[in-house]
Amino acid sequence: MNDHLNEAVSSAPAKVILFGEHFVIYKNPAIVTAINKRIKVHAQVNDNMQISIKSGEYSLNVRTTSKVDPVLAPDESLSFLYPIFKCVKHVLSEQNNHNVGINLDVDSQIPYGEGLGSSAASCVATVAALYSLFSYRDRDRIYGTAKTMEENIHMNSSGIDCYVSTFGGIVNYEPDRGFSKIGIKKNFSLLIGTTGVKHATGEVVSQVRHFREKNITLFKDLSSRARMICKRALNSMLEGNEVELGNLLTENHKLLTLLGVSHPMIEKLIGRCLDNGALGAKLTGAGRGGAIIALIPSESRKEISDRISKGSEKWMLVEFDHNGVAFG
Ligand code: PMV
Fold first, then answer.
1. Is residue 328 domain-resident?
2. Closest by alpha carbon to 107, among 167, 38, 165, 43?
3. In a mutational test of the pocket of ligand 1, which residue from 17, 153, 206 has the highest number of ligand atoms less than 8 Å from its CB?
4. 10-residue block means of pLDDT along the chain (328 residues)?
5. Range of 26's domain?
6. How many structural domains does the chain have?
């Protein structure tokens, strides 16, 4: 191997889409934030020419010289390790290092397959850890490589998840202006509820495409309402107006329901939040399962989130993350 360190550690945050999912595909804006749930990757060079990835009880071992990807079926529970494997392969080959191996220990706080950006965060953290072995810590380069990997793994990836995971903060995406960070006066508290229903983003996206083809005028109207919501949300964040922001989350959710991407479990969790003091709530990501987010009033965040999260579902009270990818 070329000049390198023997080990390196990096971590990267999850994301939630606050506003604009689905509509963003049709040239509308979206607002996305990084949250303080992370995936941490510890990379160590080995001399047995294996890529060995371990996460809790799961592991994947492939020889570095192998020309074929590991076959994960029938054990699909391993599929969350696949983006990590692809990133290791890519960086080793980019660095012309085919003859050494890497052990990776992965520790994740991000639920997989719930629309919280676990795949992008695992790409960002893995690329950052591998580049750190070669003493590169350039965020633009990490973002570029992680985005390419995500695009290869998930066709039609917009790159938003990798951007937010690399650079952190709240990001406004406008189709003609790209990404810009939003500076906010106060931090908002979000409660995330996971439905436990895994969704396949591609399938939900194509369901919405059919809906749009059949309901051209309605879709135009919903899109213009979604654009207006993003605009007002931007102002409420800049002003620190959490009551208005909560109302906008619920308004955005109604649009998504009209698109047909909600689910009984999503409605159940949202109802629970709104009946117990949340300022607003919506599904986040593709929908038809996955996760919901609720805005919790900051002056009574503990009391209200405790009240909501008494049920058997899984809840996480989170803050926005302003750091993005971290080293060490
Ligand atoms: O559930 P996720 O994190 O895959 O989010 C999908 C968001 C969509 O707007 C539906 C698709 C996209 O690429 O923006």
1. no
2. 38
3. 17
4. 83 97 94 97 93 92 81 68 92 82 95 90 97 92 95 74 96 93 87 91 92 98 98 95 97 98 97 97 96 96 93 86 94
5. 7-183
6. 2
